[in-house]
């Protein structure tokens, strides 16, 4: 028995003009909302409340160091020493459709236009609020674990790298991806459902880099389906049941199951360089199972949800035993790794290789770099040398065979470009060990790490541990490939920033944490060097908010393009309003709802909300015009099973009005479509 608490809070942030974090495509800026982003928090405490563990999964690209440090600072001021570095795990789902701009290291400023305070604040506040809700609702309960295989939902996007691993190792596994989902089910003392955490390795990149709507992608759709099912009669984002679909060792795992094809010719480009005969690497894109990215997101998300539901219903293995947690900060630029009795190697100061710029078949790079580059390119190297300086010979030798494109560890203006100080952390709940990793481990890297941690527990008298990897935790350090995968330098290897021995270093470090937990010597672990906090308030190229304006003879919320009078199920109701910048609303309120779909109830002569902006069936588009004008278009993709009747769509916004040169206010407004009828098929 444990004390359990679950909580969910909005962490969406600004849905317009902020670059989306994930594909590193500066043109991919937010322009509306498909689904809200949530932080989901789970607290497990021993019944005598002597020890606690907190696990948070947030619908964001990854947890940044700045984000973690700010969350922990807030928790400390609220709860003292209850929630700390060692017992709080913050994990990102890795959606590529959430707002960026919450990083302190310079490299991430390029694609997210700096450090954007409203974006960072929304995530910090959302995570803290979700923990607050879980904290306030602690009750006695029980935990169950289950595991099963998810089919037709992933492929390895660097299969040629995977094949470099020893044949003897490959032969122990039936697939080049981890198909296993591990699920932790939570119920209260009366057996009432509280929530679940699922860990499954897949990239949430069903929505591709042409998307401009903020959303939580395939794993977010799985959460949505599970929460909608358990919170009957509630709108999305409401209700007490919380379902987190958390990330794992997804480094080389894509949901785009049709595989890579040349966009221009339709032929396969599943080759070591992921390149096409005409148009090169920029033409090679992987496709999901659906007829467009929305459909693919739905299909993959539903697959994941259906397996989770089955595992949840059938979960019978109870998790019992003490709680333990261990955390260290480590300088990953300088770890000595003992490979064996005679051989010691070292990690390197961070650097990115040429193939980093190639991107992947889920989202290609800009300048036709190709994957699998073990040679540099004289043209780009010369530009790099002129702009950023040449990498040192020592650095080149350390990273070999990676040809260095950006020697980020040697770049410090205006602040360091990459972290040196990295978190390693393990939390144990009875027989479950959650290994919190600071990046994207590939399939085989994850297997090696899990195995090493399990062996360490076994060796020190804690057998039969269930070991799961929680991905994208605490600080972002890109990818972690195996030494063998590193040699062929595809995207994941070029993005293994601490050099060829990165994985060996992590294995050594996590074994150390596991050993300390198993032998009850956590108090003797050195804390390690504290990460820096750079004094940055708001450095951004995001355009400043200016006064919103309307066309002649119009006012905010007026309808420009009306709905039709009648629709059938599966059609799309669409209305366009005179709009205002949605950033006004995000900066005004943490939980602003941009739209509602309402149904008329004749019995009570009133309107009832049937959908909000967190619904997967609604889409909110913002289009910026000239001179402060903008339009908002709302679509409702009328789902199967919608009751016939009279409906309307409402829009809620805020416009910025200048009172003087130094003072502006945000003023709320709303708009409503005409009433339309939905008829039976």
UniProtKB/TrEMBL annotation:
Zn(2+) binds at residues 94, 203, 440, 479. The active site is at residue 254. Its cofactor is Zn(2+). Binds 1 zinc ion per subunit. Gene3D superfamilies: Neutral/alkaline non-lysosomal ceramidase, C-terminal domain. The keyword Membrane does not apply. This is Neutral ceramidase. It catalyses: an N-acylsphing-4-enine + H2O = sphing-4-enine + a fatty acid. It is an enzyme of class 3 (hydrolase). It comes from the Eukaryota. One of its GO terms (molecular function) is N-acylsphingosine amidohydrolase activity. Residues 511-678 form the Neutral/alkaline non-lysosomal ceramidase C-terminal domain. Keywords: Hydrolase, Lipid metabolism, Metal-binding, Sphingolipid metabolism, Zinc. Residues 2-508 form the Neutral/alkaline non-lysosomal ceramidase N-terminal domain. Its EC number is 3.5.1.23.
């Amino acid at each position: 028995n444990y004390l359990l608490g679950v909580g969910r809070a909005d962490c969406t942030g600004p849905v317009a003009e902020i670059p989306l974090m994930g594909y590193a495509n500066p043109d991919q800026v937010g322009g509306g909302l498909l689904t809200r982003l949530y932080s989901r928090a789970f607290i497990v405490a021993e019944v005598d409340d002597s020890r606690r563990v907190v696990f948070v999964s947030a619908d964001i690209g990854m947890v940044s160091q700045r984000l973690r440090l700010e969350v922990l600072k807030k928790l400390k001021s609220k709860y003292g020493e209850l929630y700390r570095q060692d017992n709080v795990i913050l994990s990102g789902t890795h959606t590529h459709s959430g707002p960026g701009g919450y990083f302190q290291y310079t490299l991430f400023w390029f694609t997210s236009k700096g450090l954007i305070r409203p974006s960072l604040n929304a995530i910090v506040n959302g995570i803290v609020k979700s923990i607050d809700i879980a904290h306030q609702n602690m009750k006695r309960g029980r935990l169950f674990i289950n595991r099963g295989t998810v089919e037709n939902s992933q492929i390895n996007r660097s299969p040629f790298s995977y094949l470099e691993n020893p044949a003897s190792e490959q032969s122990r596994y039936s697939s080049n991806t981890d198909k296993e989902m591990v699920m932790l089910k939570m119920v209260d003392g009366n057996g009432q459902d509280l929530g679940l955490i699922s860990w499954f390795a897949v990239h949430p990149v069903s929505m591709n880099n042409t998307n401009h709507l903020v959303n939580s992608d395939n794993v977010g759709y799985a959460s949505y389906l599970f929460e909608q099912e358990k919170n009957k009669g509630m709108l999305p984002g409401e209700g007490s049941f919380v379902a987190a679909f958390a990330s794992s060792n997804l480094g080389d795992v894509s949901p785009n199951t049709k595989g890579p094809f040349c966009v221009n010719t339709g032929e396969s480009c599943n080759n070591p360089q992921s390149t096409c005969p005409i148009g090169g690497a920029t033409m090679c894109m992987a496709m999901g199972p659906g007829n467009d990215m929305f459909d693919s997101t739905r299909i993959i998300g539903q697959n994941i949800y259906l397996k989770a539901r089955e595992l949840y219903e059938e979960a019978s293995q109870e998790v019992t035993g003490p709680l333990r947690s261990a955390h260290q900060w480590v300088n990953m630029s300088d770890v000595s790794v003992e490979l064996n009795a005679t051989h010691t190697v070292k990690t390197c100061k961070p650097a990115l290789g040429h193939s980093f710029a190639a991107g992947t078949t889920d989202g290609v790079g800009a300048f036709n770099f190709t994957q699998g580059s073990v040679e540099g390119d004289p043209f780009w190297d010369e530009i790099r040398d002129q702009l950023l300086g040449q990498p040192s010979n020592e650095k080149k030798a350390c990273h070999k065979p990676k040809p260095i494109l950006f020697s980020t560890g040697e770049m410090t203006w205006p602040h360091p470009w990459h972290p040196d100080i990295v978190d390693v952390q393990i939390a144990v709940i009875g027989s479950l060990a959650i290994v919190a990793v600071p990046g994207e481990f590939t399939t085989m890297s994850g297997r090696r790490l899990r195995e090493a941690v399990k062996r360490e527990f076994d060796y020190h008298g804690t057998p039969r541990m269930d070991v799961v990897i929680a991905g994208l935790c605490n600080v972002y350090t890109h990818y972690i490939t195996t030494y063998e995968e590193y040699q062929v330098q595809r995207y994941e290897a070029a993005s293994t920033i601490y050099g060829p021995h990165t994985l060996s270093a992590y294995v050594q470090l996590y074994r150390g944490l596991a050993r300390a937990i198993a032998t009850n010597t956590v108090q003797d672990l050195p804390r390690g060097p504290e990460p820096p906090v750079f004094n940055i308030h708001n450095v951004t190229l995001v355009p400043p908010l200016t006064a919103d304006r309307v066309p002649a003879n119009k006012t905010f919320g007026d309808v420009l393009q009306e709905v039709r009078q009648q629709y059938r199920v599966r059609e799309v109701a669409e209305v366009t309003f005179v709009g205002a910048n949605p950033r006004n609303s995000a900066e005004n309120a943490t939980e602003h709802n941009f739209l509602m779909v309402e149904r008329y109830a004749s019995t009570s002569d009133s309107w009832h909300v049937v959908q909000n902006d967190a619904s997967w069936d609604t889409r909110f588009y913002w289009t910026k015009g000239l001179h402060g004008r903008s339009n908002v278009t709302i679509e409702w993709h009328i789902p199967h099973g919608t009751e016939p009747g009279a409906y309307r769509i409402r829009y809620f916004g805020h416009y910025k009005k200048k009172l003087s040169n130094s003072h502006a206010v945000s003023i709320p407004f709303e708009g409503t479509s005409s009433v339309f009828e939905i008829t039976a098929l």
